[in-house]
Amino acid sequence: MSLEKKGDFGFEKIEKELSYLKQNQVAVGFFGEDDSLLLTVVRANEYGAHIVPKNTKYLWVPSSNAIHRYGKTVRARDVKGLFVPKGKHVACVFENGKSVVYFYLMSKSDIPARPFLRKSLDENKKKYGRIIKAGIEDILYKSGTGKKLLSKLGITAVADIRQTLTRWTKPGNAPLTIANKKGQNDPLTDTGDLPKRVTWKIIPTGGKDE
Questions:
Q1: Closest to 61 measured CA to CA, from 22, 121, 14, 102
Q2: How far is CA 153 from the centre of its chain?
Q3: Residue 195 domain-assigned (yes or no)
Q4: What are the tens digits of pLDDT across the range 14-53?
Q5: d(CA 197, CA 78)
Q6: Are residues 58 and 156 in the same domain?
Q7: Which of 16, 115, 132, 210 has an alpha carbon within 20 to 30 A of 67's alpha carbon?
Q8: Which one is predicted more confidently, 134 or 184?
Q9: Where does a domain end: 107, 125, 147?
Q10: How far apart are CA 161 and CA 163, in angstroms?
Q11: What is the mean pLDDT of the chain?
């Protein structure tokens, strides 16, 4: 966009800020360089996932007992004394003379889609349009900047996504997941990781940030 100069009306500054908007954009969500495991979780929830075992017969899903003792990332090799009772799809250890379930053996796991990113955008896109309109007017008639406009969009979108995450209830967790979480059925915010990790950044249009 070019503007004809007739007197000192701040045209150079306006052109500079409009050029900034043309050359940059705001990205909102979760970023790969931060945590690839986090992105796997985000994709599985946003689009759903069908998980099957690789190079083994079953998926070994830790129970609340295993998680409580060894943490969320516990694997079968971390637990000594595991055994599988005949005819059962669980792996146990003896504790105080009793068999305690540490893993459930599953042939598959289906995660239903919970498209919180797309839902947040769809519910708030009109608001973002108003923010853009007001930001352009600030550049033209006041002291607004392109960076200020993109920053406001980013901050607002992050807050909207966090709100969508905390409100999400359906589809809820599977019964086994609820049991492992002691009755909690907040599928997207049970650990608090997703709301905390959603963020924004300004990047070149059509490219990646430096």
A1: 102
A2: 18
A3: yes
A4: 999 999 999 999 999 998 765 677 888 889 889 998 989 9
A5: 28
A6: no
A7: 115
A8: 134
A9: 107
A10: 5
A11: 85
